[in-house]
Amino acid sequence: xxxxxxxxxxxxxxxxxxxxxxxxxxxxxxxxxxxxxxxxxxxxxxxxxxxxxxxxxxxxxxxxxxxxxxxxxxxxxxxxxxxxxxxxxxxxxxxxxxxxxxxxxxxxxxxxxxxxxxxxxxxxxxxxxxxxxxxxxxxxxxxxxxxxxxxxxxxxxxxxxxxxxxxxxxxxxxxxxxxxxxxxxxxxxxxxxxxxxxxxxxxxxxxxxxxxxxxxxxxxxxxxxxxxxxxxxxxxxxxxxxxxxxxxxxxxxxxxxxxxxxxxxxxxxxxxxxxxxxxxxxxx
Length: 284
Description:
2 domains
């Protein structure tokens, strides 16, 4: 969990404690409040200590129980503020992958420059439909979410139209192992690599590949996207992080620029992709 997220959760807990202390009928103990709410005593202290994330329903119940229902709007705004930064997959994928792709499409459409680093997969903007289909199926199986694969693939393919509009630039970096990862059948990966080679040289795409044997100044770590130098989107297994504060954006830009120093471009990048393509063996 990010430090910013935890700090925001702790600040919300402090505010909840203040409201408990300032109850119109007199200061309530945690035990008294828990009894009013019908909650375990431990839940009150976990929320106040920033060790549990409240729901909107929790906050409304709290405001009512301490006799200050008008404070709910402020509490809920705080919650939505830090939940917008840490978007859990469980909540995001409740309706499937298509809504997630639509949210991405909205942000991409607002951008004229995008910087991406992917160490394990081909970037979504450069994927074939078949490759994307296998990605969505794998993640839906992992998360136990709705299988809206065809709708999600169409949404991702729609986003790729961005590459064919003038005045835009996609600066993509890929680590060579992503070119070999068989998260799809070999025939699908072979077609994906052929497609990738054909994109090298587009005026809207600067495609860099970091060869496996390249010297690295920093570890490759996790993938991320920087949109218009205003928003960073990165992900972990539990959640997707949307970071728009200047310090975070600047940090990720430094990481991207440092990784770029190890990349090859143009015909050299094509050679690395071609080498990966030749290594793909059809299934027996």
